[in-house]
Give the backbone structure.
Amino acid sequence: MTQHSESDILTALHRSQEEGFRMLAEQFQEPLYWHIRRLVVGHHDSEDVTQEAFVRIFRGLPRFKNHSSLTTWVYRIATNESLRWLRRNAGKSKELLSGEGHYPQEEYINYDDLEAIALQRAIAQLPRKQQLIFNLCYYDELDYEQVATIVGGSPSAAKANYHLAKKRIKELLLAQLNH
Amino acid sequence: MKNFEEIEKIGKRTPYTVPSDFYEKLQRRILATSTKVTPLAHLRLRRVALWGGGVAVAIAVAVALIADEPKPLYDFEAMLSELSDEQCNALIESYNNDIFLTTME
């Protein structure tokens, strides 16, 4: 994956919109897709949400000010887009993860990987904000300040929520083991 | 799933996969969309222009309506100023003698 610094991307955007967009997509499409995928679950849905998030990012770029980093700004847009999709498609992601119910099994989910499925199901049972904080800290390795900027609240609240989320996930996994 | 320790070994592995050459396709899709994107600033300008145009049209219509407002058949003050004293007295006299006008008061 090509690496571009935030300042390189912003400089490129001033120079040429096309080049800036390309660098932005190269830098963020993969992490944003996976951030969205862990919330939305379905591959095709996540692809659509990622595309919509980038449309919003490109449109919003003139509004972007350097008050926050480009990373937290694009993550916030991707998060909002995912939450919007989740509101419109209540229950779909959990059903896809369970492989049962109204929706057929998703081609791009390995249902044989029981441990990984169990972990994702446990994460999906967390309150939405905790789920977001856990994903951003654990998978995206963002620091508490960045996470707080994305989901709202203070860095210390993000830290507390992350630890609560980890504890809760362990409890949920143990409950699944004993089931 | 045999025990809890096994779960903890999952690390960052997820059950999710993507098709081969997915990222290249995704990038093409994203950039194809970006060519159709009008930056927000342009949208704002367009919105301001639309609002401005709307207001201008509203003002023009209002002015036209005022300009086209039918004038009274007689500008009473102007007519009086053009009358001679004799004509004025005759008018007052006929007014005072007009039963319909005086009973209406």
User: Anything to note?
Assistant: The longest helix of chain A spans residues 17-40.
